[in-house]
Amino acid sequence: MSFVPHFDLMLLVQTFGYPGIFLAIFAESGLFFGFFLPGASLLFTAGLLASQGFFNPFILIPGVTIAAILGDSAGFWFGRKVGYRLFLRPDSRFFKHEHLQRAEVFYEKYGSRMILFARFVPVVRTFAPIIAGVANMRYRIFLIYNVLGALLWASGVTSFAYFLGRKIPGVEKYLSLIIIAIIIVSSIPLALEAWRAHKNHDR
Predict the structure, then answer these.
(1) From CA 51, how far away is CA 30, in angstroms rounded?
(2) b/e burial code for range 47-85 (CB count within 10 A of at least 16 → b)
(3) Cα 54 from Cα 11, distance rounded (Å)
(4) Which among 8, 18, 41, 62 has the fewest CB atoms less than 10 Å away?
(5) Could you read off the pLDDT of 56-112 as tens digits, one per residue?
(6) DSSP alpha helices (H): ranges in 36-113?
(7) What's the DSSP call for residue 89?
(8) Domain boundaries, the chain
């Protein structure tokens, strides 16, 4: 997950408003070039700004949830139609095969539930729906986990930040620390998978 200093992120969120937030969540949820966007940090920042009156939570929370669902669905159908071509692409600045491989590991480990769990793992959440499409997962099953994951991730993170901002005045002063904590916690699954892969490779 990309880290953007809290003052820059808050300024960007306020500047681009609802369209920018929804587009960023849509892109990070399923467009392979959107993996670098700060999804969870953006959701938290937007929720915090909503608690201060910058956004209407009754527009923001449903909006980010729908954007997350549509983004995953776009990634799924991209994977179903042309996703296999990603495996033939050379590495570039905006695409690396290791991102696909991480998503593949999650799919092998969790199967259809990957779509739910991947929501909370940076990079993997971008490529998970593409892998599901390439693997010809049944769309009905995919959609169930897609909606559930969006509710827990997009709605959950945004709502938590909103209520935190309402209950704790001045919490925005600690936003940079909170974002760092989000990055660390959300990176733990990737670190564990990398450690396991390294351990298995050494055997």
Answers:
(1) 28
(2) bbbbbeeebebeebbebbbebbbbbbbbbbbbbbeebee
(3) 11
(4) 8
(5) 999 999 999 999 999 999 999 998 888 767 666 666 555 566 767 777 777 777 778
(6) 39-51, 57-81, 97-110
(7) S
(8) 6-198
